[in-house]
Structure formats: C-alpha cells, structure tokens
Design brief:
CATH class of chain B: Alpha Beta
Strand content of chain A: 5-15%
Number of strands of chain A: 5
Structural class of chain A: alpha/beta
Distance between the termini of chain B: 22 Å
Strand order of the largest sheet of chain A: 2-1-3-4-5
Radius of gyration of chain B: 19 Å
CATH topology of chain B: TIM Barrel
Largest sheet of chain B: 8 strands, parallel
Number of domains of chain B: 1
Number of helices of chain B: 15
CATH topology of the largest domain in chain A: Rossmann fold
Oligomer: heterodimer
Number of strands of chain B: 10
CATH architecture of the largest domain in chain A: 3-Layer(aba) Sandwich
Number of helices of chain A: 9
Order of helices and strands of chain A: HHHHEHEHEHEHEH
Chain lengths: 236, 362
C-alpha cells in the first residue's frame, strides 16, 4: 500500500467520557447509517477530546465507508444508501479538513478525476472520488463533460500520479482513447497512471486503448490504484 | 444477402411466441449508430423525423436487422417535462441532458403532463415511425425506446438526487413516478398509433448497482408493470421487450413482468442481483425460457467494438447454441450499439444468423 498511514488507534481515554475507540465506532456507525447529524456530533466530540484528526478520518469515517462499500459490492445495499453515506462522510470531513491542514497531515498521491466530454453521468465518478479521498488521496475533481485537454492541463499543473476518467455511455468511449493519446503527446503518459471507469469499460477496452487499469466499482478502484502505483514505482 | 422465408416481423413475432422461426432474429438498441450508417449528423438525426427514419431504414437494409429500435437519446421524452438536451454538431455524439427539470424537490409539484403529439421530441419519433410504416408496413418489427417510470425519473431529475429522494422524499418520488407512468401510457398510445408494433421498455434502473431489491420492488417494478399492463390491455397484439442495463439485473422479479421478451448484458457477465449467480443465456433459458424470450449474446463493449468479425461470429455461434433451440431467442447486444462499432462486425451478426439457422443442429 502506497502512502497509506498505518492505522493504529492511540488508545486509552480522551477528554470525552468515551474511550477514543468508541468515538471511532460511533463515527463509522454514523456513516453506515447515513446519519450526518451524528457524524458531525461525534467528529466535534473527537476533536474536542484531543483525538488526532487524521485518526478520526481513518479509524472512524473511512471504516464506515469501507464497510458500506463492501455491502454495496455484495449488492446488499443500493446506490441510495451509498450516496447517503458519502454525504455523511463529507459533512464530517468539512469539520475535520481545517484541522488536517493545520497539522499538515497528508497521506496520499494526487488524482485528477472527471467524466469525459459529452457525458454528464457523474454518480460513479463521485463515489470513486469519495473512496479516493477516504483513502488519503489528494483529489482534483474536474466534474463532468470534461474535455481531454482539461484532464491533461490539470494533470500537468498538479503533477498528478493518476488520471481517472469515467463514462457511462458507449457513445463517449472514444474520448478515453483520445485521453491516452493526448497524455502521450503531452509527454506525461509514462509517469502517469491512467484509469478508466464506467459501465461499458472492460479490461479488454482498457488494454485496447493503452490505459493502465479499471475497476468494477468504487471500492475496487482504490485497490487497483494502489496496485498500479506500486507497479509504476517498481518499474521506475 | 437474402433473408430467409419469413419477413423480419414474422421472425420476431415467432420468437416472442416461442416458436422456431426460419433464422434467429437480431435486434438491440440502435440509436446514433444508424445515423452514421446514413451519413447523417447525430444532432440532425435526433431532431428531424425524416432523417431519423432514413437512418433507421438505411441501417436495416445495410445490416439486415430484424427488430428496429427507433431511438435517438434518453432526453427525447424528458424535454416534455422541462429537461434541456444539448446537441453537439460536427461529431457523432449522442445528445445528452444538460439541465434537469427538477433540481429542487419542491419542483416535483410543478410537473405537468404533456401532449406527445406536440411537445417534447416524441413528435420526431412519431414522424419517423410514420415514414417507416409507410415503407415497410408490418414486415419489420419496429418501435421506440420507452423509458420505465423510474428511468424517466432520472431523466427529469439527476440520478444522484433521485437516489437521495428514495430515502429522503419517497412520497414526492412516488407521486412523480405515477405521473411518468400515466405520461408513458399516453406516449405509447401515440407511438403505437403511428405504427410501432413493438415496445422496447427500458428498465435501466432495475439493477443491483442502482437499487437494491427492496427499493426496486417499491420504486421500480410496480410502475413498470402498470405501464406494461396498460399497453397490453389497449394493444394486445403489440409486443413488449424489456431492456435492463447493468451488471446485476434483478432478473428473478423482472421476468415476472407482462413483457414477452427480456434484453440484458449477459456478456459483462451479468450476475443476478439476488443470488449473485452468473446469468448466462443458458441460465436464463433453463429458468425462464418457457415463459420469456431472451435477447442477448453480443458484447457491445468488446467483440463488437474492439473485436473482429470472427470474434462476433464466434460469440453469436455460442449464443445461438445456448439459446436458440425451441425459439424464444433473439441475438442482441446488451445495451446500445456504440457509434464506432465496426461496420464489418455489424455485418457479421446477420452472417451468423444465416450460417447457424433453424433447425439448430450444432
């Protein structure tokens, strides 16, 4: 696993009457239930209690997202629950982010993500973004209907490790091929992992257009990203 | 190349009636790919009934497709509710919804039914159907893309918002779904009145990646069934074939719908949203083959798109081998044929149906 902080609860008591492990559990439960009010409350409690902000993210919020993500992968829940959990995750992150910046805690690599031009479907892309952020990646979300040139410009600007492009429609699949070509022309193909996602994208297609990888869903996307970065590093 | 003894409509009808036709019919969601075959820009195809008809007929005659899906883009009906579609000129891009009619839940209350003869782009399809009917009569199976009420919901309001409505505003969503169902009944009256002899009912949200089974049974299935029952009550001779997108279709309950046929992406490979088992054509035929015709077998993202004619022929042979015996099978891709699907691959589909024809003795 690259750039991932080893999860190690600080243990013991904190200023709250609850042990910090229980605050983590409250946070993960709130994400799973889609309880934004509870997530914000326990985030506040955790911070006031002196818990490390990043630990609240990694041991609480992320655990909740992963557990729900696993249930989604098994099709035990649908998109509504997953999206509610993602909203809950972000509502707590809004509180935590300023503290993370203060302490300078970062964990990850840089990802430029977006839905390709002429396609406005972004639910899958947003969930992948959530899982990337939940896993410590620094994510630059370009939104949807994104021209190839914009992907490349942003990747160059932030020195991205990964470009992740999504499409839901077969009609916009040619944009994927154009993206790989543009990355080559811009001289960033060798150093950048290019991932593709969306319902019509298969590993055969990824190979065909010369990209690096794809994943079945948002949970697997991060695992694939980790592996591809590892491979890239080993090959460097 | 000449077709067999039956005409295209008879071939499709025999299959949907579980009789063996002369050769396996082929069909599937053909939209902008037909415009390409006629050299017509996508935006013009989507806005002009004459060009849509010309494209569909050119495609039919060039590739010998039996079941024509007269379709441009998912926004054609949602414009009637106020969604706005973006058309892109010069390039072969399917028009897409750039602004949704319902951005705030309160706007659900403002939705009004529309006149399919005059409003939205349904009239474009009606015009195309008139032209197709005048040329082919009932010798070809042709019909429109009819979005299920829950699919429509995501054309009127953005998918992620609708997903939140499932949890946060279920009553408003139910009310809207009821309106969409009534609207589609009216739309279908117009579409069938203008010649459609088959309805391609797109149940694109009936898959485990979108709704879990409980949500689908509450927000999807009942409205879909109300629509299909209404069509059958009014037009008993018009066939209905359902189409479900996604990797985890809720097959076990979807097959209980009134529709005679079912189209899904078996090659992804689809897994049942309930049992998790791989839902191959063989799996489908063994369980539901006597009650439901299956339309599947071709992969729009692999063999057709990046394979060669031999790949398509091989895939078609396998599908025919597993699905065609006894009728109840159409060869089809699991979703829309991509606009850049190779011409020689499209030609290979018909070649396969002629090579491995009835009686199936492979």
């Amino acid at each position: 696993m690259i750039g991932r902080r080893i999860l190690r609860p600080k243990g013991g008591c904190c200023l709250s009457s609850l042990p910090v492990e229980q605050i983590y559990k409250k946070l993960s439960d709130a994400v799973i239930k889609g309880d934004s009010v509870g997530a914000k409350k326990w985030t506040d409690t955790g911070i006031k209690s002196g818990a490390q902000p990043l630990d609240l993210v990694l041991n609480g919020l992320v655990i909740g997202m992963r557990q729900l993500g696993d249930r989604y992968t098994k099709r035990l829940v649908g998109l509504p629950q997953l999206m509610l959990a993602a909203n809950t995750f972000y509502s707590a992150m809004e509180i935590i982010k300023p503290y993370l910046k203060k302490t300078g805690e970062t964990t990850g690599h840089k990802v430029v993500i977006g839905t390709v031009q002429f396609d406005v479907h972004d639910v899958g892309k947003n969930l992948v973004k959530t899982m990337f952020e939940a896993s410590g990646y620094e994510v630059y979300d370009l939104g949807n209907d994104v021209p190839v040139t914009k992907f490349i410009e942003k990747a160059k600007e932030v020195n991205a490790d990964i470009i992740a492009a999504s499409t839901l429609m077969t009609a916009t699949m040619p944009q994927m091929e154009a993206l790989v070509k543009a990355a080559k022309e811009a001289g960033i193909r060798e150093k950048t992992v290019i991932m593709m996602g969306g319902a019509p994208i298969s590993s055969a297609f990824v190979q065909h257009v010369g990209a690096d990888g794809s994943a079945e869903d948002c949970v697997e996307a991060v695992k694939v990203a980790d592996q591809l970065l590892e491979k890239k590093k080993a090959g460097a | 190349m000449q077709k067999g003894e039956m005409n295209c409509y008879e071939r499709v009808a025999a299959t949907l009636n579980h009789e063996e036709p002369d050769i396996v019919p082929w069909t599937g969601l053909t939209g902008i790919v037909t415009a390409r075959s006629a050299g017509i820009p996508a935006d013009q195809y989507a806005k002009d009934g004459e060009k849509m008809a010309k494209s569909q007929m050119t495609f039919h005659e060039k590739y010998l497709i039996d079941g024509m899906w007269v379709f441009s883009d998912v926004g054609y009906h949602a414009e009637g509710f106020g969604s706005r579609v973006k058309f892109v000129g010069d390039v072969e891009v399917t028009p897409y919804i750039e602004k949704y009619a319902v951005e705030d839940p309160a706007q659900y209350e403002k939705l009004q039914p529309y006149d399919p003869e005059k409003q939205s782009r349904v009239p474009v399809v009606l015009k195309a159907l008139d032209i197709i009917k005048s040329k082919y009569g009932d010798t070809v199976a042709y019909g429109p893309f009819v979005a299920s009420p829950m699919t429509t919901a995501t054309h009127v309001r953005k998918l992620d918002n609708v997903m939140m409505d499932v949890i946060q505003y279920p009553d408003l969503l139910h009310k809207a779904l009821s309106l969409y169902t009534d609207q589609w009944i009216e739309n279908c009256k117009a579409l069938i009145g203008h010649g459609s002899n088959i309805i391609w009912h797109a149940v694109t949200r009936g898959t485990g990646e979108v709704l879990d089974l409980g949500q689908y049974l509450e927000f999807g299935w009942p409205y879909e069934e109300r629509l299909e029952k209404a069509i059958k009550r009014l037009y008993p001779d018009v066939f209905i074939v359902e189409h479900c997108c996604g990797r985890n279709p809720h097959l076990d309950v979807e097959v209980k719908h009134t529709a005679e046929g079912f189209n899904y992406w078996d090659r992804c490979p689809a897994r049942s949203g309930i049992t998790g088992e791989i839902a191959s054509i063989k799996y489908f035929k063994e369980r539901w083959g006597e009650q439901k015709t299956v339309a599947a077998g071709l992969d729009q993202t692999r063999s057709l798109l990046i394979g060669d004619p031999e790949d398509v022929m091989g895939e078609a042979r396998d599908a025919i081998l597993n699905g065609a015996k006894g009728g109840g099978f159409m060869l089809a891709a699991g979703c829309e044929y991509a606009v850049m699907t190779k011409e020689e691959n499209l030609k290979a589909i018909s070649r396969a149906t002629h090579k491995w024809k009835y009686p199936i003795n492979m």
